[in-house]
Amino acid sequence: MEMARRKPLVVVTRKLPDVVETRMRELFDAELNVDDVPMDQAALVEAVKRADVLVPTLTDRIDTAVLSQAGENLRLIASFSNGVDHIDVATALARGITVTNTPGVLTEDTADFTMALILALPRRVTEGAQVLTGDQDDWAGWSPTWMLGRRIWGKRLGIIGMGRIGQAVARRAKAFGLQIHYHNRRRLPGAIEDALEATYWDSLDQMLARMDIVSVNCPHTPATFHLLSARRLKLLKREAYVVNTARGEIIDENALARMLEADELGGAGLDVFEQEPAVNPKLVRLARQGKVVLMPHMGSATLEGRIDMGEKVIVNIRTFMDGHRPPDRVLPSML
Ligand code: DGY
Fold first, then answer.
1. CA-CA distance, 201 to 188, in Å (whole number)?
2. Is residue 248 within 6 Å of ligand 1 at its C-beta?
């Protein structure tokens, strides 16, 4: 008689959309976090000791200390995230643990949100919205010189990181009349450059000095930590805007805040922060003055996107458990 196969113990660290959790319950011995209380490091250690599969997300730090406690059964970390900078992937791989992520399904949502920040800054969208909802009644009606922003059409947008999300931003930005420039580890094929009418800059420094708006769309890796360093930020035009929907660590946030305070930059639209969820108080002050638009890491926050991410996690787990290579395996060459 054939023995029934034990369902894998899948520990999920945060609340996921109901439809994803229901499917996980059907397929796996799923340990869910229905209260959505973030797990501390001790709880993560307990999880990796007993799980066959861990499903963390970007709010969990899966570092060497956690991984060194992993039980023998842990063979897969199927992250519910596109970015994997919260996981020590090298250590996981060295311990024979496969890591997967959820690329592709966040692209369009994140590009939409990037575009929202690109528009919000020069056109003063959040500032304007606050005029009618703030405490003071300070709208005396339309006036030719009141609340003037800056035109978007015809300006130069420099995209740092021209992967899926960078290209999706470029497609939208082109429709808004922005001129597309980009810096990337590798130059794009000519056909894509032609379709986007995009200009490639091998030198990030040279690109930065010429842009009106800069959008950060690359992953956070050791090579991109503080890519926009104090030195590089100083290369930007005094009236330039910086938008970041990727990861806070890519910009030296203190240097950025100092420059904004000193009026050495036009403004910044930030969806991600260096010490997330803490936000630099200087940035909050600048936001109150209308120099900065701050968003609480909402770039990919759509119900459809989260369900698609859950589906990817499930496919990765199922494929792996069936003895095949999961579609979204994270390889060292990606880091
Ligand atoms: C991710 O999954 O890495 C995104 O940052 C979520 O918004």
1. 11
2. no
Tens of pLDDT, residue by residue over 211-247, are 999 999 999 999 999 999 999 999 999 999 999 999 9
Q: Does residue 247 have an active-site annotation? A: yes
CATH of domain 107-294: 3.40.50.720
Closest atom of ligand 1 relative to the 83 alpha carbon:
3
CB of 13 within 6 A of ligand 1: the answer is no
> How far does the centroid of ligand 1 lie from the alpha carbon of residue 56, in Å?
12
Structure tokens of 321? 């458990």
Residue range 36-60, pLDDT digits in tens:
999 999 999 999 999 999 999 999 9
Q: In the chain, where are the structural domains located?
A: 2-105+303-334, 107-294
Write down the pTM of the prediction. Answer: 0.95
CATH 3.40.50.720 for domain 2-105+303-334: yes
